[in-house]
Amino acid sequence: MRKASGGWLNGFLGVVIFSGSLPATRIAVADFDPVFLTSARAAIAGAIALALLTLLRAKRPARGELSALVLVALGVVVGFPLFTALALQFITAGRSVVFIGLLPLATALFGVLRGGERPRPVFWLFAVLGSGCVVGFALMQDQAASWRGDLLMLAAIVVCGYGYAEGGRLSRHLGGWQVISWALVLSLPVMAALSLATQPLDWQRIGLPAWGALAYVSLFSMLLGFVFWYRGLAQGGIAAVGQLQLLQPFLGLALAALLLHEAIGWPMLAASLAICLCVAAARRFSAPAPVANLR
Predict the structure, then answer these.
(1) pTM score, two decimals?
(2) Torsions phi, psi of 292, nearest 5?
(3) What tens digit of pLDDT does each residue of 99-116 get?
């Protein structure tokens, strides 16, 4: 019970950190090329991860774990950042919320396929209801659609859900911070070379907000958030803790209200309450039903 509670706490901390990722990416792509942003954030985080692994003398992953770490890297180090950066050239950060609402479902599905988890049928009911609340709220905001942006965001959700589930599965025996660190290190040579090849021709035109956004997505979104997130998935279950992602859009809006003094209307409050109830219910029914002892 204590381990599961710790998983939900770590997962929540990860979601709080991730809540600033899409707005920061939106700011960054105003000045940075999306490919450069993707490679640079991974290269910066990878260099820090390499230093941590060296200083702490972390155990090297087994040969059989390397292929899974490569898949994690392709999903969360390369795929999700690149697809979202490309998508946010065509759609707003608010529109992307429609697809972020589907990420918990994708994570839960891959948690079943890759993690061997078997939530109760009622869990899926609340998982679908929770995603529906997020998508419905986002659609009420009347965000402009773009088929290119929408398809790119859909691809981002699929690869990210797989990367979350695969990383959560590995974290059960390798450790949360080690999984993301090794995934970053494996991708470091390619990402460093790509960032050099796609670097801006004129650094002077890069504004301070874009530099701050790059720093955030490199240090927090790409590294620190995953330390908590993968640990939470390993402790509390991939499908169950993954439902905390439903809170991510509303945490981002709450941060905007706190820092930018934006108004919070009743639709957001109502949707937030519904989401919290769905997450609580999903947590309760995430474990498989006990098997009756027949004698």
Answers:
(1) 0.82
(2) -65, 140
(3) 777 788 888 888 888 877
